[in-house]
Fold each of these.
Amino acid sequence: MKAMKNWKQLLGGLLVLVTIGAFLYTWRTHPELLRQLKDVRMSYLLLVGVLYGVMIGLLVLIYDTTLRLCGNRLGLREQTLLTMYSSIVNFFGPLQSGPGVRTVYLKKRHKVSVKKYAAATLLYYLLFAGFSGLFLLSGIRPLWQAALLCLVLLAVGAAGTWLARGKLQKYEFVRDYSRPLIVRLAILTLAQVVLVSLIYFTELHAIGAQVSIGQTAVYTGAANFSLFVSLTPGALGIREVFLLFSSQLHHISSGTIISANLIDRGVYVAFLGVLFLTVLSLHAQDRLKLRSDSAD
């Protein structure tokens, strides 16, 4: 297990180096991209930063819902601090480690069942993948066909849940109070995917790319799926590869993809910097008692 983890970290490091090298090569061979970035208006960058702030608020609601599915809940302040902290760790930590941080904290501080929380988190990921797939399919098939396929998959999932309700009782997902929570989680997850699409739409237009909402939806679906195989901080290099290989679906050029992703990376790192300062100012480590946990 340790050897596998080291191998993944080594591969992730190599991918980061290859990605940086590819960016430098692209800048050198396409000087117009650098001019594009210099012409980006500050208002676009600020808007992207604000949208990422909205994303944090949305994640607070999503994580609160997954926790309620386990029969637990945190206060708003604690949930917000934990979301901010795990978002920072998720980007800079190895192998998208934010969910692990939340799981360990919730088990140690609030005795939340690891199995229940893992099952609730898996449900969220399935919804995220489903809506991302719907966005991606909208570029292959008419939107109504993609929506119909999504409904069929949801119906199959609901039928499977009903048939396995006896075994799922231990996860509390088929209890009476959980049904509106699942609907709430689905709505919040869809809102998250739409918000991600709006962020990408803003970034693409910031560099002057004339892309449609439909193109951006496909672009979003492809980018979202890169998160499931992320071996690098922030899926650096992985997301770009997914977007480049799916260019036949969204018809956005490689130069535009690279420029838009540079904006996204830059703004998000700056946003996480602000988030980090906010966490420090609120003494999040003391409030969440992470130091005492690690000492145990």
Note: The radius of gyration is 20 Å.
Amino acid sequence: MTILEKKRAIIEKVENATSEEFISLLYYNMNNETKWDETEEGKNLIDKLLEKSQQDVREGRVHSFDEVKSKLMERFESRKAVSK
């Protein structure tokens, strides 16, 4: 897979995923010290995530901080277990 194909696949995933999935991914990557968010492509993905989150709020799809934190921790722990 070429770099261009990878970028297109990532953009397609962003456009088709929910903001909750990407928040989980960001949380996971930040805890593993992944630095992709410092690249131009990473910054663009974060901007898309923020746009999706804003749309969720406009459409009334919101969760409390505790709900989001709990879901993130569950996903992070399950991904951590799978990667071992």
Note: Helices lie at 3-16, 19-31, 40-58, 65-83.
